[in-house]
Amino acid sequence: MEHFDVEAELKKLPGKPGVYIMHDAKDAIIYVGKAVSLKNRVRSYFRASTKKTAKIQKMVSLIARFEYIVTDSELEALVLENNLIKEHSPKYNTMLKDDKTYPYIKVTVAEAFPRILFSRQMKKDKSRYFGPYTSAAAVKDTIELMNKIYKLRTCNRSLPQEEGKGRPCLNYHIKQCTAPCQGYIDKEAYRESVNKALEFLNGNYGPVIKDLEEKMYAASEALEFEEAGKYKELLYSVKSVAQKQKITESDGENKDYIALARNERDVIIQVFFVREGKLIGREHFYMKQATQDTDGEILQSFLKQYYAGTPFIPKEIFLAEAIEEQELLEEWLGRKRENRVYIRVPQKGQKEKMLELARQNAELVLSRDAEKIKREELRTIGAVKEIEALLQLSNIQRMEAFDISNISGFANVGSMVVYEKGKPKRSDYRKFKIKSVAGPDDYACMKEVLTRRFVHGLEERESTDAAYGSFTRFPDLLMMDGGKGQVNIALQVLEELNLNIPVCGMVKDDNHRTRGLYYNNCEIPIDTRSEGFHLITRIQDEAHRFAIEYHRSLRSQAQVHSVLDEIPGVGPTRRKALMKSFSSIEDLKKADAATIAEKAGMPLHIAEGIVSFFANKEEKKV
Questions:
Q1: What is the CATH number for 324?
Q2: Residues 448 and 577 in one domain
Q3: Would you say 444 and 437 are in contact if contact means Cβ atoms under 8 Å apart?
Q4: N or C end of the chain: smaller count of CB under 10 Å?
């Protein structure tokens, strides 16, 4: 990478809005920010007279280079900043750890005969949505209850176009659907049932309860006890749903209440969801806090990341602390909602009490999870510290482990697994199909894999898109599955490429159990009860598992290819369709011609030829 002259680059900064990206000496992205004026904002980091927090001072000391992207407005910069933070998880940005999606109840009111559906997304499709809810099970129970009470259809037929085509489904026969697909109910009568269901979902349970009670008593008086029992069960279900809805406010608006609790290291955000004036649930979120961020800064980061990923935005958002970018965030949220959004900080009254309740819940989660977090840290960061002490290294952030898999030299493959801060980073895992080695030579295979991995990384570092390459980040420690031989191969590759990366081997005993580490030409014993030992075995097992899975998939594909190549009329396109539609040759053999034609999307006569092909092969065996 060419030398980066910070002072020279600062002079080139435009006085326009945009996003700036800070890189460290290893070219990792450590911070992403936005600015109304890139020139003023980025310069301020490097100006001695500017007062900086300890967090900013530390971050600035690590900056090796920066880049920027100009936008047309501060609002565009906000959106881009959020996308880049989510993509790269910079060390000095406060990060939302959770990526949850919440269920909705969707009523397809634009259809001639509407349905009530479960949905994870809120789309602009003329349907009515209720939620979000925190329990998927509760949503499914409510939908099932609605369909039972109002006898609405659950099929996906296009009505009334497909009316009368085919027979009515089982739901009609068990009296849980009025069969609009057969024309047994007109649009007006069906729509009346839908409207009652909408009333129920809006929280008006009274008419439903009254109607079910009347039907239950009437059936009982007519000595139809089985029917009365059904109404009694429905009545119980309705009352259960009604009791779960706690009225919190009389204005019937949609609101989110957001508060936090924190200690020296962890932050818990608690959100209370109020929909149509009812508290429908709550959820907590973990934030990876950047050192010395204020409560307001953490809440501001949370709002950007959380509402960028959730389809529902309420009219009002109540916070326990004021934030700097309130007007900008209100504008951004308002555009997403297509209506005004208000961010408020109440000082007294019921809304302030709701926030206090949210804060207390966050405190409970924080204290409850403290021990769990401590144990997790011992398993990850604590384990890495133990390995650092054993090898006399420091600041190991990223570890990469490699393994080779083959059977008698067939389909040699390599795997690369990545652990950061003691946790697997699966997005950085990579597979290698060996190109230069034909037989079972693990050393030669490993040399090819390591060479390709680091050459690719060096090429990415030299390219203009270096910041976004998958191989750009190099490990702080290279872990080889084996002893002296594998370590020497790795050291040879690194020397040829002029790279200085520590390499250690994970040595196994005669029973194939890890017994120690091979480093600097000597074997280092390790306590098998320690967290460091457990982490090493997890890394070793993960590299092995990943390689074996890849090898197995290649073997399976090769088997499918070899057999399918023999079938007349099956070329590359149809072969690919068969491989995609059937998990194995055995599954394909069991299928009839109609199933093959439907699944693989091919003419029936070709499918019949495939069935005949396998039948003839079986006859020849006999």
A1: 3.30.420
A2: no
A3: yes
A4: C
